[in-house]
Design goal:
8 helices; alpha/beta; Rossmann fold
Length: 256
Amino acid sequence: MLHLLFLLLFLPTPALADDVSLKAEDGTKIHAVYTEAREAKSGVVLVHMLGRSASDWRFLADKLQASHISSVAVDLRKHGDNVTGEVEIADEDYQAMTKDVAAAVAHLRKQGIEDISIVGASIGANLALNVAASDEGITNVVLLSPGMEFKGVEISQALADYGERPLLCVVSKDDRYSAKTGLFIDAQARGYHKLEVYEAAGHGTRMLNKAPGLEPLLVSWLTGSFRLSKASTSRGEGLTTGDTTTIETEGTRLGE
């Protein structure tokens, strides 16, 4: 009996995940999932792909919580629990989604967390970089399958404005548009950064299912335990650089 009690006392504590309602700068109410890590000193905002939701990040949020990092997985406007049934997303909605990400950042700061990173997938990656570029308090970004431009959300100027802060970019060779965008980011990033290139891992958060090493990489990067070296730096072998500023959006489509 005492042995069983000892085991119960020392079993890992499950993630404390709560549904929260955020208010964007323009007044739009946004659903998000806040996963609290006890005594957390850092936090992460998680931004999903087009047509997906905050639930895509559930397993990563659990791993971050176990590493003493709180997270907010946001449902972008007209996505996830923000809607019931069919919705039409207008062109102006995509730019306004940066306000949704900023609201998630604000939520972490209200919890007393100042060391904040943003992780985004596909258009979520573009949104993440744009928000970080305009907020000097963001310490780190992780971009899964970014594009030079998704639905009018561009990254070129945002990358320049982001400056010398750390950046991790992850792409797959079978996703040609994002892979070439990754080469552009690798060439233009001014600070501590890494480009990780997989062979056939797909697009966005789908890479978490197809590349077993990706989740540990994200956790090590976000906890600060990752150390860049020549041996660990991945490059886009077999990819051609060209003029990535004029790449057409082709291949893997958002939400597919």
